Amino acid sequence: MPISVSFGPKQSWDSWKALLAWGQAELTALGPRESRTHAEYLLEEASGLARWQFERSEALPDAQICRRYEDWIGARKKRVPLVYITGRAYFRHEVLEAGPGCLIPRPETEQLVEYFLTRSGFKKEDAFSFLDMGTGTGAIAISLLRIFTKADAVLADVSEEALAYARRNVEKYGLSTRAKLIQTDLFANLLPMRWQAILSNPPYVAEAELAGLEPELSFEPKQALAGGWDGLDYYRRLAAESPRFLVPGGWLVLEAGFGQTEAIRDLLRAAGFEDIRIFKDDAGLERVVMARLGIKVHG
């Protein structure tokens, strides 16, 4: 949900342009590009208007919108993430509710979904079951369920707060009959069953790197970021435990951090996975690992 707004007396604005200029000036510390784009984005979200509308409008800004915008700019100055300020996360073709207590969906994870769509071999009309492990807002599962209309999914997360967001997003898109939400630490609370695919964006930040992360990440839950001393703790567990929950030939699809893909490949190969593929993100960094459980592996 968006941050709370106090409607006490503040400044008076005689135009949208003046309000926008103030917002950009307040965010100067973010740098010239971000101060402009973030000020514009927050005004669009606060007002419900497109940029061209408030640039051309001669009407006085609504007082309630002004107060909301002033509070949102104040939060951004404190480096609160945009998604936590507005309560909305844009992921592929979905607009998801998000806020404190859940990991913010990012473009890198959109690419995980894209690679699954194009490389898994599943067709839109196929009926299959998959697991979204560490679902957060439910972004991966919701995006896939809206494409594969005969599929069903389990959305799993250790965080009750994250699952609350995921549940509301599932309901928003009318997917409750095909999506089951479970609170669990990885596979601990899952009943024995085998999925055709398991997808996950696990915590992968190494312990030594946590202190150096950008300020915005300090607002996100540490348990959704911290991957142990080398960032690979969850990959070790996923490689070791997922074979018991995949059909032979089933896909394990993982997002990876910088420089981690080769280590993940080794973990998966040792666990009996085959056809291990590594894909790059738009920045040219190796970001997604896809692997199939070997036919002879019995978890």
In short:
The protein is an alpha/beta fold and 299 residues long. It has helices at 16-26, 32-47, 51-56, 63-77, 82-86, 107-119, 139-147, 160-172, 233-241, 261-270, and strands at 88-91, 94-97, 129-133, 152-157, 179-183, 195-200, 246-255, 273-280, 286-293. A 7-stranded mixed β-sheet has the order 5-4-3-6-7-9-8, sandwiched between helices. A two-stranded antiparallel sheet has the order 1-2.
Descriptive overview:
The strands form 2 sheets. This protein has a 7-stranded mixed β-sheet with strand order 5-4-3-6-7-9-8, with helices on both faces. The protein has a two-stranded antiparallel sheet with strand order 1-2. The model has no long low-confidence stretch (mean pLDDT 92). The longest helix has 16 residues, at 32-47. It is 36% helix and 19% strand. With 299 residues, the protein is α/β, with parallel strands linked by helices. It has 10 helices and 9 strands. The chain folds into 2 domains: 16-78; 101-293, 3-Layer(aba) Sandwich (Rossmann fold). The protein starts with 15 loop residues before the first helix and ends in a 6-residue tail after the last strand. α1 crosses α2 (32-47) and α9 (233-241) runs parallel beside α10.
Oligomer: single chain
Regions with pLDDT < 50 over 5+ consecutive residues? none
CATH superfamily of the largest domain: Vaccinia Virus protein VP39
Structural class: alpha/beta
Overall mean pLDDT stands at 92
Give the overall shape, derived from the CA principal axes: elongated
Find the count of extended strands (DSSP E, 2+ residues). Answer: 9
